[in-house]
């Protein structure tokens, strides 16, 4: 809390409201007492400018393109860590030492299997079921198959084992859902493979076509998952916190987060980007048409992969992913026309006043799909990949919310009612 206050003038009265200061110096007006003191609420649809909690997990400066997990720059983590180290950092607040990391890796292997009865679930989804609906359903059901996993083992000392189990099992579910959708035999996790290699092997190994694990792919996957691991109070994370605030346990809360992520304005954007690039390609690369549609105020069409609620400059994650996309494609000698389309679109958008004046830059989803394609991951699995990455962030926020008395209050926004004030009841036969 800072010593300063803000004054609100209402109906001839002045109300002094406290100002809260973040560790990085940003200030927020604490309006919690305003309703009690003045009878006024505040209106902020879409939470454009409302902090719903205090959080020490991720720092984001959207004007300067800075993203840090627990104080570490995203660039350093993406360059030097494996995904599970970063998951450990987000959830426990510190990077693991050698022994802690080895134990965490061991737990990943130990808990990688899912209950065999869960495998029958896959048989009862329709053949074209979305892997996101499968993932959300199966994650919610972990609560029943592993009730002991959903108890806070040590709420004030971290949830390392619970986390390892969840990260590991959801990875297995994701790979199994892909195999089932292809009608292929399941490939079980192996004890000799690390987190990302195991995932790629479960996805692509076949009895008649053994999968060769390519270190470049493993390193790219680590990077992508790290870059998606947390992004403070985004839609899916806020969903996990809101659902969890009602006392819902970890797994169903995560399942709600997966559903929120699915939307095309959020994690589903990586699928929508590829669809858009394919459409432009099939339309003789008519960039002007699509840019024109996106600029037309009477057309709801948008260029997916551009713009962000918080970043008003280049998304730092998009910068890293763009460079990694070039590396992978050139080192593996893969040519993808969609990369050329993406680069040309970005070039044109960056010269266009409409996009410049609104600070619309590529976001994390713009290039990620092109790397996933190079890895052989099908488009309908892209948002599942995002969910695998975001899992540690959701867990960290769920845990933080429960450990903080203030933000663990049940989430319950106010509204400005704009319906009919009151009218007399009319029985059914007399309604005209
Ligand atoms: N293409 C064209 N115009 C855009 C775009 C876009 N991608 N994004 C925003 N705009 C325009 C809006 O039309 C609006 O213009 P106006 O001021 O003339 O009305 C202005 O820019 C501001 O846009 P808002 O919708 O108010 O911004 P908001 O913060 O609510 O939305 C969002 C952010 C949803 C990401 C938006 O930029 C968008 O729809 N982008 C495309 C979808 C996408 O890529 N989503 C992934 C986001 S990253 C993630 O969640 C992982």
Structural account:
The chain is mostly helical. The protein has a single domain, classed as Citrate Synthase, domain 1. The protein contains 18 helices and 6 strands. The protein has helices at residues 34-38, 74-80, 83-92, 98-110, 116-123, 131-145, 160-182, 195-204, 215-228, 235-245, 250-261, 269-282, 287-295, 316-331, 337-350, 353-357, 365-375, 382-403; strands spanning 5-10, 13-21, 27-29, 58-61, 66-69, 72-73. The chain has a 3-stranded antiparallel beta sheet. It has a 3-stranded antiparallel beta sheet with strand order 4-5-6. It is globular and about 80 Å long. It starts with a strand and ends in a 29-residue tail after the last helix. The site of acetyl coenzyme *A has 18 residues, from loops. Acetyl coenzyme *A (ACO) binds at residues 265-267, 269, 294, 302-309, 358, 360, 363-365.
Entry summary:
The protein has helices at residues 34-38, 74-80, 83-92, 98-110, 116-123, 131-145, 160-182, 195-204, 215-228, 235-245, 250-261, 269-282, 287-295, 316-331, 337-350, 353-357, 365-375, 382-403; strands at 5-10, 13-21, 27-29, 58-61, 66-69, 72-73.
């Amino acid at each position: 809390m800072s010593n300063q206050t803000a004054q609100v003038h209402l109906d001839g009265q002045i109300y002094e409201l406290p100002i809260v200061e973040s560790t990085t110096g940003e200030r927020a007006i604490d309006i919690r007492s305003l309703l009690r003191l003045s009878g006024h609420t505040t209106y902020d649809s879409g939470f454009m400018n409302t902090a719903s909690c205090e959080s020490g997990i991720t720092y984001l400066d959207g004007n300067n393109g800075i993203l840090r997990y627990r104080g570490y720059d995203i660039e350093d983590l993406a360059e030097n860590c494996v995904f599970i180290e970063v998951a450990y950092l987000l959830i426990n607040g510190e990077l693991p030492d050698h022994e802690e990391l080895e134990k965490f890796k061991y737990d990943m292997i130990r808990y990688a299997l899912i209950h065999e009865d869960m495998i029958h679930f896959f048989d009862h989804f329709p053949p074209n079921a979305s892997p996101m609906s499968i993932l959300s359903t199966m994650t919610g059901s972990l609560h029943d198959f592993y009730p002991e996993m959903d108890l806070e083992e040590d709420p004030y000392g971290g949830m390392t084992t619970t986390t390892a189990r969840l990260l590991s099992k959801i990875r297995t579910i994701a790979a199994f859902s892909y195999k089932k959708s292809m009608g292929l035999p399941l490939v079980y996790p192996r004890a000799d493979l690390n987190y990302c290699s195991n995932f790629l092997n479960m996805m692509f190994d076949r009895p008649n076509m053994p999968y060769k694990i390519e270190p470049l792919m493993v390193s790219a996957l680590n990077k992508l998952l790290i870059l998606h691991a947390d992004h403070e109070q985004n839609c899916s994370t806020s969903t996990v916190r809101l659902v969890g605030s009602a006392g819902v346990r970890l797994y169903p809360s995560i399942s709600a987060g997966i559903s929120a992520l699915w939307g095309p304005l959020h994690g589903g954007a990586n699928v929508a980007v590829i669809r858009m690039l394919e459409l432009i390609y099939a339309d003789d690369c008519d960039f002007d048409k699509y840019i024109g549609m996106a600029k037309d105020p009477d057309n709801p069409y948008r260029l997916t992969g551009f713009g962000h609620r918080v970043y008003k400059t280049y998304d730092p994650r998009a910068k890293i992913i763009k460079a990694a996309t070039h590396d992978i494609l050139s080192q593996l000698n893969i040519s993808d026309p969609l990369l050329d389309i993406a680069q040309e679109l970005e070039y044109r958008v960056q010269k266009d006043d409409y996009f410049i004046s609104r600070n619309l830059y590529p976001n994390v989803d713009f290039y990620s799909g092109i790397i996933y394609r190079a890895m052989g991951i099908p488009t309908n699995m892209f948002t599942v990949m995002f969910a695998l990455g975001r899992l540690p962030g959701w867990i960290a926020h769920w845990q933080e919310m429960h450990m903080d008395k203030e933000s663990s209050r049940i989430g319950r926004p106010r509204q400005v009612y704009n319906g009919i004030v009151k009218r007399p009841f009319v029985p059914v036969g007399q309604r005209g």
